[in-house]
Every structure is written in structure tokens, then in C-alpha cells.
Write a structure and sequence with these properties.
The complex is a heterodimer of chains A (about 120) and B (about 120). By secondary structure, chain A is mainly β. Chain A is built from no helices and 11 strands. By secondary structure, chain B is mainly beta. In chain B, about 0% of the residues lie in helices and about 55% in strands. The relative contact order of chain B is 0.34. Classes of the chains: A mainly beta (about 120), B mainly beta (about 120). At the A-B interface, strand 5, strand 9 and strand 10 of A face strand 5, strand 6, strand 10 and strand 11 of B.
Chain lengths: ~120, ~120
């Protein structure tokens, strides 16, 4: 079956702009998590959505937001971009049963560059 | 607070050598999950293993093996007879077992397998 897809793969924006990233999970997966990866901070959890509800949130400012649609596709939005937001943004989906942390399947990421 | 330390930032070994990647974690939880992920140059994280804290059995999967020692809070990963395709960044991660718990990643170890 198809893997996790993320669009766009690359994005260049300028400071102050806003950006929306998209993630389509594996069919049947209802949980979508977002991560930011930078050389300095490594992989940091942004938030998780399950059945259109934000279930968990990392320590990021309110400029970072997300949502999930009824088909489990998720979008992440960053407003008022800063240079430090330049990163690889990874999306992961999982089936999420009663066994809390199922295996997460990651997408290829969106590389965001803020100039 | 939870923390994952991968002290080895970068390792280079010659093909066919064995290599061990270290992972030390800190948590106050009595039950938790530990993970290893591989990130090849393509960028997608690939799930390798998940371990429950109450299961200290070592695991072997082909050329990969994992040594979980609760007494030293370590979850080390060994690749036997390394191959060039093993070149990647490897992440160790930790999560509690409660619904609100986030997954915490180490900074990663970049592994170079030299032909």
C-alpha cells in the first residue's frame, strides 16, 4: 500500500510569510504526528492528531498549528515565519489501537527554507 | 524529565566490521517504550524496533541486535557485519505509556560504512 506522502517536498519562503504543509497518511491510519528536524535541535515533536482532534502537543509557539480532516489527511501551518523555522518537517502516521504507541511510518518530509 | 542521549555523534567503520550504537535514557516513568529509527539519505525515518520497559530480553533481527539493560538505562544497537547500505543516521527514542506522553528522540548517530 502507498506510504505517507508529504507535499510539497521543498519550499522557500521569506520571513513574515506563512506556510501550509500537507500530509496524507497511510490508508486506514488515523493518527498523524508532526516533527521538526534541525541540525541543532534534532527531532522535536510538534503535535499529534487523531480522528480530527489534537491529542498531544510539543513545546512550540502558537505560530505552529495544525488540523486533521475527516479522511485523516493533516495540514500544518506556520505563520509569521522566522529564520529559525528553516527545517525538515516530518509527518508520521500510525494505526493507533489500544496498544499506545504503534509503529510510526514516516513520510519523506518537507524541507522548508526561510530567507 | 525524559531525556535520550546518543553520545556518539558520528561513527565510521569499514564494511564487514561490527558496530554498536549507544543509547542512554532518563525517565521517571516505571513503564515506557524505547525505539530505534534509521534515517537514510532519502530522509524518511524507518522504524527498526520498539521495546517495552518490562521486557528486557535482547532481540536479534538478522544482522541487527539490541541490548536493553534497565540497570544502566541503556538500549544499545549493534550491527553485525556492516554493509554500505547501513550508512544512515540512527535515532534512539523514548516514550511513556500514557496517552499524553510524547516521544523524545536522541540527537542521532551518523554512521558511515566505508567500502
Amino acid at each position: 500500500k502507498a506510504g505517507v506522502t508529504q507535499t510539497p517536498r521543498y519550499l522557500i519562503k521569506t520571513r513574515g510569510q506563512q506556510v501550509t504543509l500537507s500530509c496524507s497518511p497511510i490508508s486506514g491510519h488515523r493518527s498523524v504526528s508532526w516533527y521538526q528536524q534541525t541540525p541543532g535541535q534534532g527531532l522535536q515533536f510538534l503535535f499529534e492528531y487523531f480522528s480530527e482532534t489534537q491529542r498531544n502537543k510539543g513545546n512550540f509557539p502558537g505560530r505552529f498549528s495544525g488540523r486533521q480532516f475527516s479522511n485523516s489527511r493533516s495540514e500544518m501551518n506556520v505563520s509569521t515565519l522566522e529564520l529559525g523555522d528553516s527545517a525538515l518537517y516530518l509527518c508520521a502516521s500510525s494505526f493507533r489501537t489500544s496498544d499506545y504507541y504503534n509503529e510510526q511510518f514516516f513520510g519523506p518530509g518537507t524541507r522548508l527554507t526561510v530567507l | 524529565a525524559q531525556k535520550v542521549t546518543q553520545a556518539q555523534t558520528e561513527i565510521s567503520v569499514v564494511e564487514k566490521e561490527d558496530v554498536t550504537l549507544d543509547c542512554v535514557y532518563e525517565t521517571r516513568d516505571t513503564t515506557y517504550y524505547l525505539f530505534w529509527y534509521k534515517q537514510p539519505p532519502s530522509g524518511e525515518l524507518v522504524f527498526l524496533i520498539r521495546r517495552n520497559s518490562f521486557d528486557e530480553q535482547n532481540e536479534i533481527s538478522g544482522r541487527y541486535s539490541w541490548n536493553f539493560q534497565k540497570s544502566t538505562s541503556s538500549f544499545n544497537f549493534t550491527i553485525t557485519a556492516s554493509q554500505v547500505v547501513d550508512s544512515a543516521v540512527y535515532f534512539c527514542a523514548l516514550s511513556g505509556m500514557n496517552r499524553d506522553d510524547k516521544i523524545i528522540f536522541g540527537k542521532g548517530t551518523r554512521l558511515h560504512i566505508l567500502p
